[in-house]
Structures are given as C-alpha cells and as structure tokens.
Amino acid sequence: MPRSIIIFVRLVDRLNYGVGRFAMYLLFVLMGILLWSTISKAGGAPSLWTLEMAQFTMVGYYILGGPYSMQMGSQVRMDLAYARWSDRKRAWWDAFTVLALIFYLGVMLWGAVDSSIYSLTYNERSPTAWRPYLWPVKLVFCLGFFLMILQSLAFLFRDIATIRGETI
Question: Which ranges of the chain have pLDDT less than 70?
Fold first, then answer.
C-alpha cells in the first residue's frame, strides 16, 4: 500500500481513538446533569434545562463514540458463515459492505450539514421553555458522521491491503 494511505489509516485511527476516549467521559457529564435534575426537583425548584441538556449530551456520547466503537469492533455482527471464511474472503465481503456503509453515512452527513446550515442561518431554537440553540448539537452530528466516514475509509483501505496480501 502507498505510504500516504498507511499514514491516513493510522492518523484516522489515532484521531477516532482520542475522540472516542473523550466521548466516554460524556457519560459522567450526563450523570452529573441527571443528578442535578434530581436534586433540583427534590428541592422544589426543577431546572428547565436538564432534560434537553441530558439529551444533547447523550447525542455527543453516542455519535462521537460511534467511530471509536467501529474501530474497536464492538458493533453487533451476525456471522453465521463469516467466522468460517478465510481472511481474504472476509476482506472481500467487508470491502463490499463498507461501500454501502460509506454511501449511507454520506447521505446522513449531507442531511446533517443541510440541517446545520438551516439552523445557523435562521438561529433555530428548541420549542421548549429553555429554548437552546440547536446548531451546536447539529454540528456534533456533522462531526460524528464525518469521523465515521473516515473510519469506514480506513477499514476499506485495510480490506484492500488484506486482499493484496499486505497489512496496515
């Protein structure tokens, strides 16, 4: 494989590993928000912002953790025949399926970018009492989908290397 592709794959892996490790700590932020919500409700003065902030934090946790989950291979797979195949046959199948994944993620990224542009242009706000701006969470979607596309491309390059009898 060309050196530039090897550098790309290693850089994407390092980037998604770091973002994924950061995203794991968002679970603690979420717990803090929910704890504050519980305390404020028990104190008789419920906070308006806690429910939506918990939802936004969960979006970041889920979307930014997605590429890391892909990288670690912790997604659910159904491998009735896959486990018995050779590495090369698995690489052919993975290269085919990752192309479908890249197409799907591309459509999702397109929708996220379009929605983010709308949100930024019109200062879109949530219709709740707290009324936060929605563009920050929409940008998180854009970033997450972009990182997933990069991780999918890294998988594709690894599969091509395996088909060629090389490793990255």
Answer: none
Could you tell me what percentage of the chain is helix, strand and coil, using 3-state DSSP and rounding each to the nearest 5?
75, 0, 20
Residues recorded for the chain? 168
**Which phi and psi (to 5°) does residue 60 adopt?**
-60, -45
What HEC string does 26-77 produce? HHHHHHHHHHHHHHHHHCCCCCCCHHHHHHHHHHHHHHHHHHHHHHHCCCCC
Task: Quote the CA–CA distance of 52 and 133 in Å, as a whole number.
Answer: 11
Q: Which of 30, 21, 142 is nearest to 71 (CA)?
A: 21
**Segments making up each domain of the chain, as ranges:** 3-163
Whole-angstrom distance, CA of residue 125 vs CA of residue 137: 11
Residue identified by tokens 């519980």 is: 38
pTM of the predicted model as reported, rounded to 2 decimal places: 0.91
